[in-house]
Amino acid sequence: RVLRGRPRDLAGRRVVVSAGGTREAIDPVRYIGNRSSGLQGYALARTAAARGAEVTLVAANVNLPDPAGAKVVRVESTAELREAVLAACGDADVVVMAAAVADFRPETRHDAKIKKTDGEPEAIRLAKNPDILAELGERRRSARADRGVESPGVRPEVIVGFAAETHDVIANGQAKLARKGCDLLVVNQVGEGLAFGTPDNAATVLVAGGEAVEVPFGPKEDLAAAVWDLVAARLS
Ligand code: CTP
Ligand code: CA
């Protein structure tokens, strides 16, 4: 079902996919996390490998078997995910940020488990995490500026982001696409049993330059195939 007669149109391409959700430690036993299962990112990695790509999958806290043919790098925190993605992106043609990255982390990580006391609990102060996707977009933008307008060699050639929105899905998505400097943004509407932990998904893929491609509700493999079709069309 993954190939459906498609050629190995990603043969010779290096792709990086992030999947799952990052966790930020509060103390040795607790963390701030999110509900991402990693299913969509794993489907993307599996599909890319089946279409011939050399795949590095950066997996944050995912409890799924390794996809056939992908190199898997396991991470926990946003800082670790950032290191692994930037390292793998050095010579990549495509990066797909399907991971749900924690926007905030506790300002301090307690070395010992926080104990209950008779009084009120202490507040957890939060610090902002780096935006990895925006950083990738910004690095590419400045590399292109350095090399001049005609800059075919700048990598990654295609940068793909994901976004889960609860309202004003398209308007929020369009603003996010521009803000992050990516080429494609896969926008999910969350809620109504969509997205988290389920095998099916529906999405709108926003393409830089204007068009929007609707992918109807169906297996996450179908959305993965649609994303790689759009990526392959943008690769030179
Ligand atoms: N992302 C990232 N680093 C972050 C936060 C998000 O690389 N610190 C990436 C995600 O992997 C995803 C995209 O950015 O591909 C959009 O994530 P999203 O959470 O929708 O965007 P935010 O900019 O964090 O905006 P908000 O959560 O406020 O909607
Ligand atoms: Ca976010």
Account of the 3D structure:
- The chain is an alpha/beta fold.
- Helix content is 28%, strand content 28%.
- The strands form 3 sheets. An 8-stranded mixed beta sheet has the order 5-4-1-6-9-10-11-12, with helices on both faces.
- Helix 1 (39-50) crosses helix 5.
- The relative contact order is 0.17.
- The mean pLDDT is 92.
- Cytidine-5'-triphosphate binds at residues 97, 99, 101, 103, 129, 131-133, 161-164, 176.
Radius of gyration: 18 Å
- The multimeric state of the shown protein is single chain
Biggest sheet descriptor: 8 strands, mixed
Strands in their spatial order, largest beta sheet:
5-4-1-6-9-10-11-12
Could you tell me how far the N terminus lies from the C terminus, measured between alpha carbons in angstroms?
A: 26 Å
Weakly predicted, low-confidence segments: none
- SSE topology string: EEEHEEHEEEHEHEEEH
Enumerate the distinct ligands.
cytidine-5'-triphosphate, calcium ion
Please work out how many helical segments DSSP would assign. 5
Q: How many strand units? A: 12
What coarse outline follows from CA principal-axis ratios? globular
Mean pLDDT: 92
In percent, how helical is the residue content? 25-40%
- Provide the β-strand percentage band: 25-35%
Structural class: alpha/beta
Binding site for CTP: 103, 113, 130-133, 162, 176, 180
EC number: 4.1.1.36, 6.3.2.5
GO biological process, one term: pantothenate catabolic process
Keywords: Decarboxylase, Flavoprotein, FMN, Ligase, Lyase, Magnesium, Metal-binding, Multifunctional enzyme
